[in-house]
Amino acid sequence: MAITIKAHITGTVWKVEGKAGDRLEEGDSIVILESMKMEIPVEAPEAGKLVEVKVAEGQAVKEGDPIAIFEPED
Fold first, then answer.
1. Which of 14, 22, 35, 42 fits as disulfide partner to 50, beta carbons 3.0 to 4.6 Å?
2. Please, what are the domains in the chain?
C-alpha cells in the first residue's frame, strides 16, 4: 500500500535526489528542503520503491504538503 511522504517543514525544494521507479533503502534522501539557510533531507521511511515525486526544484512547500508517493516493500 502506497504512502504519501509529506514535508515536515515550510521551505523550498533545494534538490530532488530521487526519481519515480527508484528503489530506496530506509534513510535514503528523496528531496532536500532548504529553510532558513539550513538543508533538511526528506528521507525514505523504510525500504521500498519511489512511485512519484510531487515537487520540483525551486518549488515552495508548506509543512504537510505532499512530497512523494512511496511504496514500502512487503
1. 22
2. 3-72 (2.40.50.100)
Residues present in the chain in total = 74
pLDDT one-digit tens code per residue, 8-62: 999 999 999 999 999 999 999 999 999 999 999 999 999 999 999 999 999 999 9
The three-state (H, E, C) secondary structure of 9-60, written as one string: CCEEEEEECCCCCCEECCCCEEEEEEECCEEEEEECCCCEEEEEECCCCCCE
Give the Cα separation of 6 and 62 in Å (integer).
9
Which cell numbers hold the place of 52?
Answer: 512519484
Cα separation, 74 vs 70, whole angstroms: 12
